[in-house]
Amino acid sequence: xxxxxxxxxxxxxxxxxxxxxxxxxxxxxxxxxxxxxxxxxxxxxxxxxxxxxxxxxxxxxxxxxxxxxxxxxxxxxxxxxxxxxxxxxxxxxxxxxxxxxxxxxxxxxxxxxxxxxxxxxxxxxxxxxxxxxxxxxxxxxxxxxxxxxxxxxxxxxxxxxxxxxxxxxxxxxxxxxxxxxxxxxxxxxxxxxxxxxxxxxxxxxxxxxxxxxxxxxxxxxxxxxxxxxxxxxxxxxxxxxxxxxxxxxxxxxxxxxxxxxxxxxxxxxxxxxxxxxxxxxxxxxxxxxxxxxxxxxxxxxxxxxxxxxxxxxxxxxxxxxxxxxxxxxxxxxxxxxxxxxxxxxxxxxxxxxxxxxxxxxxxxxxxxxxxx
Length: 372
Known about the structure:
alpha/beta, Dihydrodipicolinate Reductase, domain 2
């Protein structure tokens, strides 16, 4: 098969990365980069040798597929137009701003018989791929995704911006319906939530505790997964994982701490993670997750197969994200009778001084979100 003729739509930070990687792939011909801002598209075009275009509708007939890296608020319109034009798509996360929009894209891609992949790139992170097959039937998951304020993706909150990565990973690991969600969050700088903690309970009995912040001074992208047989610590940033596996006596509840002599206890203080809770550092794989994501996209088109991160996966992640945001919005800061609810509640003393109803801020943002 000839090289896949590809375009990148949106030349912001992530679109520029996609374009650079695609331009270097042997199986791909980067034909065009698209952005309404002339300086942005021309800069990336100069770096990659692609044709700069102002309108993505000028792609029809010249490319087979496109990567959509535009703001989330435009995903539905841009992706619908491109799918109707016959292009296979890799849409950056989140797939859309709402589950309803995401479902519309799922159905359109199915009718058009086109590949629709979603850019949940952590699925291709070597830290996860190196340990994925050892994490069957997880029972507890703790995830933290913290960053400084990006001054981009301000059309969405931290749940759709950052936490969506961990939502997708957790859903693919647990493979069970979400039965209950509790969440709390706060807006710090903009018109959306910037810090959120969510607790998900699954029908399988698994509990997942997810924390995301984009106003943190200490970046972190990590996850711990506890199964019946091991614990894995996944460092997405460093792209490496550690496995701790209890020995057979510990797993079988045959180990008796009270039966140990003082000498044995002293020995275990130094050798706990070699004798009883055996720790293994998994080798870091030298792979680029975005490159692997693009290769999977190209292979899915060539073979007519489903991508590793399907449109259904993207839709399901957005659906859980919306439920988390709804819980954040309804959280009562001072008990169930409290008037201070949601991500825009200010300290009660300031609210009284300013004479501001905390609900008025929330309602303004909700109305703006629905309108735009």
